[in-house]
Amino acid sequence: MTPRPAGHALVEALIAQGVDTAFGVPGESYLAVLDGFHQYREQIRFIACRQEGGACFMAEAQGKLSGRPGICLVTRGPGATNASIGLHTAFQDSTPLILLVGQVASDQRDREAFQELDYRQVFGPGTLGMAKWVGEVQHADRLPEYINRAFHTALQGRPGPVVLVLPEDMLTQLTAAPVLPRAPAAQAWPAPGALRELREMLLVAQRPLLIAGGSGWDADAARALQRFAENWHLPVGCGFRFQDTFDNRHALYAGDVGIGINPKLAQRVKDADLIIALGVRLGEMTTGGYTLITPPRPLQKLVHIHAGPEELGRVFAADLLIQSAMSCAAKALESLAAPAPSAGSDRLAWHDWADAAHADYEANHQAPPVAPLDMAVVMKTVQRLAPADTVYTNGAGNFSGWLHRYVRYFGLQHQGRTQLAPTSGAMGYGFPAAVAAALLYPERTVVNVAGDGDFLMTGQEMATATGYGANRGAGRLVSLVVDNGTYGTIRMHQEREYPGRVSGSDLYNPDFAAMARAFGWRAALVQETDGFEAAFNEALQAGAPMLIHLKLDADVSTTRGTLTALREAARQAGR
Q1: What domain range is 401 assigned to?
Q2: Does the predicted TM-score (pTM) go above 0.85?
Q3: Which of 47, 278, 417, 552 is the most buried (most CB within 10 A)?
Q4: For residue 314, what pLDDT is reported?
């Protein structure tokens, strides 16, 4: 192969891995890579973002949507540390991602040179770190090897983020090293004996519940999951912010097992005599702070199926542990022969249990009217008017409860991922994720729901959406900014623990509609429920992305009550 700069070889390696889009903020430490993007601009594009946190969130969304590692490039020091929020999100969400970091030249190392950091220490791998592996390429000829290892590491077992450090001088060296072929994800299948044991546990169950989620799913696996649930008539809940793992319109869907869980579903988790946890980590949010399923030995029989061996048995001493990729586990479960109905009946023992779980989910869609702006009606209107394959994104805050409760997510077996949300609880995630989805899949409509505090953390990426033509395809990019003038989640906790003693949670907000117009977006202000449908219809027809500023009273903070009610309840409790 003809020698070329290592920076060009890196771009060639990305193309060989099937990457056609990378996100980042340019830096002088990797100019040779940027030149490589120019060299191969017909095959791959570099999306220049406005802040590294937003860029890494976009790459994380890319990983969720594609199932392959999202790619983010940043410069050393401040660039890398800004990007760490996206890296942490990818780690907790089990999303494949590769963060490529420019580094000081090799002859300047260990002098605390300009913006120098030791990234192995900063992002140190481990079960509570921010990366699965941190590598540094010292020799240009080994660059393809490192890129290949980065892709394999990000994809294998429990998917996650990898950091690859690129010294500035290495990137300018010439190398004739050939790029390596596309890295496949290794697929671990469940052991046959474990499947037999799982079937035996199902045969004696009276109140089983399947909780699905996590990463590593594809459309075929989601279809197999649905057939498994149908064969056994199992109620299915989805783990925190993985609601699109199972079609929410299905008669066996029981709801999301996460923050703001339907109290009836929470009780159902506790009452279950067998829980099959498929792909979910069973973290704090999915277990209600480890109260619905209690460690180390749950009250329910527990079958835990996960791709990462290090996750199995780490918190819960389950009755059956199965290491398997989701693409294999779901297909294996589909093959489990369901029993014949009991004598004198055409129904399985838990048939009524499963039907009641779905009925509880349907009932949870009903809510008393709220004036002047009813967020339940807003979410239902979005669902009614937006295309079925719309991608919904959000960051962190109480506002997300309306989205999670009232939107019925299309299962990924139909159109791919329809939910992009951080299980890490990272504020500012939703808007860059929406921009990434709109740029990567221009034929799909993307709706971002953001709180006022949430949106202003990354809202400058409106410039990225405008600059790269986020609305040029058939899809539309819409952002709903829910403005109640407060950090709602923090205010809610304050009112519960220290009623009436507000500190640090009030916000001063700009005119969000005027701000959007300054970035070339269309915009509307909505303060009453009746005005929303017309504004959203306009957004679906607009030639430019559109922001709808939803102005709420600060007291309207949660899907299940007001801050005034919380404050009064806390006072009555003697706090």
Answers
A1: 375-572
A2: yes
A3: 278
A4: 94
